[in-house]
Structures are given as C-alpha cells and as structure tokens.
Design a protein that fits this description.
- The chain is built from two helices and 17 strands.
- By secondary structure, the protein is an alpha+beta fold.
- It folds into two domains: about 180 residues, Jelly Rolls, CATH 2.60.120; about 30 residues.
- The radius of gyration is 22 Å and the shape is elongated.
C-alpha cells in the first residue's frame, strides 16, 4: 500500500494526493506536457547496443531530469539483455534522480518500471509549500512487463517544483510518459451546488440536534 507522509516543512493545509490510474489523472484537468522516448529504438548509440547516452542533465520543456552520479541513459526496447516494452530513461544506479519542474503545474505523473525485480519506490514530491514522501509499488518492466502509473495532484495554491525517486538495491527504476498539467477549476454553478449541499447538511444537523434536545427535556 502506498504511503504519503508530509514532512515537518509542510503547512497543515497543504496536501498532495496520489493518483493511481491514467484515466483518473486525465480526468483531473488539462495535460500540457507528456514526454517520452518512444522514438529511441534498438540498436542505440551508446557503449552497449541497448543504451543511448543522454547526459547527467536532460531537459524537455518544463522538465529537467538530473542524475547526480552517472549519466542518464535511454534503455531501448527490443534489446537482447533488457527486453522492455517502452524506452525508459534511467541512471542505471541506486542514487536519487530528481525531475525539476518549471512553470505552474499542479498535476504530475509518470509511468515507472523496475529493471530488476519489483517493489516499493521511494518518491519525494516537493511543492512551493512543502515536501511529501510516497512509496508506491512499482512492477518489473523487464521481459515486456507492464509499467506502473504513478500520478500526483497538488492542493489548491500548490505547484510542483520537483519529483525525485531513489531506487533501493538491487533494482534501478526507469521512467517514461512524464506528464505535467493543470487541474480543472470548478465552474461557478458547481461551486453553488456544493455550497447548497453544505448549507443543507448544516440545516439538517441543526434540526437533528434540536430534536435530540427536545426529547431529552
């Protein structure tokens, strides 16, 4: 089960919600960027046929992917050693990788796959108001294994600044379909409907309390 823990730096009103399906995520608002490496195919141009050199810093739109130790590489599908269904960006190691996010986005998601085995990923989400830790289960992407969707929605007033993951030994993590978006704002009619519902609930509660008081008298 995925856990979400707000660090002490986060104010009490702050919140980031884990979203576990692409359909639910897409329904939250407009997706403004979706970055993948599907145009990278085996054989690639790195020192083994399946790896394509990308560098320690990879920039795409409002995303900057930073690996502090080894270069990020693109693991291409169709190779004899690592048979993945989709091209994945990974640093091949177990040190934290950080995706820095520019602009004002309150929706973030990606598809993840472990490259050896399966298990919990350690993901830290940072917004302008706080930091949050999540541990979603991520499946094995090898041998054409399915990728695991992991998405997040920031609370009102929060925007994402970075998302980082640290993969525990013995399984590094690869990512694709890195998505940014903006959550839909309810229409005035929707706000009015919600307000009416709240007022109705309050009136019903007050009526119930008066009845209880009358019975007790």
């Amino acid at each position: 089960m995925a856990l979400a823990v707000a660090f002490a730096s986060a104010p009490a009103s702050a919140a980031v919600t884990l979203v576990t399906t692409q359909a639910a995520f897409s329904g939250l608002g407009a997706i403004t960027q979706n970055t993948n490496w599907d145009d990278t195919h085996y054989p690639a141009d790195y020192w083994t046929p399946e790896w394509s050199h990308a560098g320690k810093i990879v920039t795409a739109g409002d995303l900057t992917i930073v690996s502090p130790w080894m270069d990020n590489v693109i693991l291409s599908p169709g190779g004899p050693q690592n048979n993945v269904a989709r091209a994945l960006i990974t640093d091949q190691n177990y040190v934290p990788v950080t995706i820095q996010i520019a602009g004002s986005h309150d929706l973030f998601a990606f598809n993840l796959g472990m490259l050896r085995g399966e298990g919990e990923a350690n993901i830290v989400v940072t917004t302008n108001l706080g930091s949050y830790s999540f541990t979603p289960f991520v499946g094995n992407a090898m041998n054409l294994g399915p990728l695991t969707f992991v998405g997040f929605q920031a609370d009102a007033g929060e925007v994402f600044q970075s998302v980082g993951w640290q993969q525990d030994w013995p399984s590094p993590i690869g990512a694709t379909d890195i998505q940014l978006g903006t959550a839909a704002v309810p229409e005035p009619a929707a706000w009015a409907l919600m307000l009416t519902g709240f007022l109705g609930a309050g009136a019903a509660l007050r009526t119930a309390r008066r009845r209880q008081a009358a019975l007790a008298a």
